[in-house]
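Dear Dr. V.,

Thank you for agreeing to look over these. As mentioned in my earlier message, I'm a first-year student in the group and I'm still getting used to reading structure tokens, so any feedback on how I've presented them would be very welcome. I ran two proteins. I've put each sequence directly above its structure. The first is here:
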Amino acid sequence: MPKEIERKFLVENDSWKNYAVGKNELKQAYIAKSDDCIIRIRISNDNAWLTLKGKQIGFTRPEFEYQIPVADAEEMLEKFSHDNQILKKRFFLDYKGNEWIVDVFEKDNAGLVVAEIELENENQTFDLPPWVGKDVTMDFKYTNSSLAEYPYNKWKK
């Protein structure tokens, strides 16, 4: 079964920009959500995906992802989720041999910057970069599906 093993951290400073090696712009939304599964539509540049993610246990959850035509994804975003979309810029970074991702959120989630690393297993060790702060892997308000429903700019600071 395909799975995603991921750790997520808040970004504390801009020093991550020195490690950036690539960038994408993403638009995504969640068209269905239950206790056991979420269904996401994502568009990035000239590609689009339909993703099904299962319930997270520890740092791991099942993930099935399928490339779909961009026109279909755009129509799904418009018809099924026009009011809960997430916009962000995604930067790819190399730090000590590991690929990190930094997401800079926009619109209703502007001001939130999160770093992620995907792992081979939950016990994999890695060096923390100087730009990461608090580990929010298990804080579900930082999941994109939660941010789509309850955006960062509505949180009490």
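The second protein is here, in the same arrangement:
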Amino acid sequence: MIGKKNIVFGFIFLVFTAGLGPLMVQMYADWGAAYGEKQQTVGRLQQLKNDDFEEDLEALSADQIARANTDGILSLNKLVNAETEIDLIKGGPHAHGNLEALLNIAVGVCLIFIAAPLWLKQAISWAFILGTLLHSGMLYLERVFQLEWASTLLNTGIGPALILLGLLVMGITALVGFDGRVVRDDG
């Protein structure tokens, strides 16, 4: 039955992309440590400034002030880097992958109820699966596993184009062929 492969693929792909949630929780724990370090070093800088760059009633040398500034800058940078890693996963393979997995499930269900030529239903089905793999699948490989070659396929734009084309053709096909009854195509 056309649509079954999209439903199965969608649920399996959803497991992988939704499974990034626990990974991001762990990354937020690491981010929390970086945030605590940042608070401590920036707080020390603020206190030094308030005390006219004296510590324990002694004036700090230019070298000591520079080291305190460097510590503050490095801790801010560490925090930004930790947050960037989380955002790359959250805004990429996690969000797009979940959406595209659900689109595959929805399209798979719709294909069951649409009367259309078998070749057209197959084309729609494969457009969504390949589009998902070439878009959020490549995002997953690039951002979670840091596989640089995946960005080459990702940057072609073929994945999103296939999904958009699939949506357009699915919409037109549904307009013409949707009748609410299960259509047996034995494919």
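From my reading of the second output: The mean pLDDT is 81. Residues 123 and 166 are 8 Å apart (CA to CA). Does that match how you would interpret it?

Kind regards,
E.
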